[in-house]
Structure formats: structure tokens, C-alpha cells
Amino acid sequence: MEVQLIIPIIGMLVGVLIPVAVFIWQYKDAKGKREAVIEITKNLDDPSKVEELLHIFEERKQQPIDYRRGGVITLFVGLGLYALGYYFLGNILKGAGALVGLIGIGVLIAGYLYPNTGAELTDAVEEFEKK
Fold first, then answer.
1. What integer pLDDT is reported at residue 52 of this predicted model?
2. Are 72 and 96 in a shared domain?
3. DSSP letters along 42-54, please?
4. DSSP conformation letters of the chain
5. Domain check: are 122 and 71 in the same one?
6. Domain limits for position 92
7. 106 vs 118: CA distance, rounded Å
């Protein structure tokens, strides 16, 4: 087998192996947590304590998404892509950078139009009630 043929094969295998490895890692990580919960619940008699335990292991974010932060990040990623296209790679990357930058501006505007935290919502309601 030639060396020129080995490189594309390795590239394709890596593209398949990385997602599979991440899946296995995620499964094993969650499996340990599930086994710990099962062992603890075997010794608990109160169902409310079981619910409390499940809330402890829950990893979801409880706070809403801050669109303003995401918009600023997306905007600057777009500007970086545009600059890379402007200086090195050409019009296609300039167009992609402009698109990503405009999406960032839209997300940033949405973050200001739609308040997302409890304090912002309370302030918006109080301001509306004053009128």
C-alpha cells in the first residue's frame, strides 16, 4: 500500500473514531452516576429524598441563555472570519464572516429586545405597570 493512500484512510477513520470515543466516554460517565443513584435509593425510604437526590445529579443549566453574550461572541467570530478572508483566503471566507457577523448582530439585538433573567423580567413588568 502506498503512503499516499494511507493518509486519506487514516483521516476517514479518525472522523469516525472521535465521535464513537466521545459517545463511549459520555456513556461510561453517566453509567457511574446512575449506579450511584441506584445504590443510594436502595437505602432510602422517603420518596421526597429520592427526588431531591435526582435534582442534585441533574446537570442542566437552571439559568436562561444570555443572548447578548452569545451575540457578542458570534459577532466577533464573524469579524475574525471576515478578516481572515480579507487578508488571506479570499471572497468566500469574507462572505462567510459577514454572514456570521450579521447573525451575531441579530442575536445581540434579540438579547436586548427579549429580557431573559428574572430581574430583567421584573424590571420590565414594573416599567410597564408605571405607564
1. 72
2. yes
3. HT---HHHHHHHH
4. --HHHHHHHHHHHHHHHHHHHHHHHHHHHHHHHHHHHHHHHHT---HHHHHHHHHHH-----SPP-HHHHHHHHHHHHHHHHHHIIIII-HHHHHHHHHHHHHHHHHHHHHHHS--SHHHHHHHHHHHHH-
5. yes
6. 67-130
7. 22
Below-70 pLDDT ranges, the chain: 1, 53, 56-64, 115-121, 124, 131
Residue 42: what pLDDT? 76
In the numeric block, the cell 487514516 is attached to: 10
Distance (Å, whole) CA 36 – CA 42: 10
Residue 103's identity, in one-letter code, is I
Question: Where do we find the cell 441563555?
Answer: 65
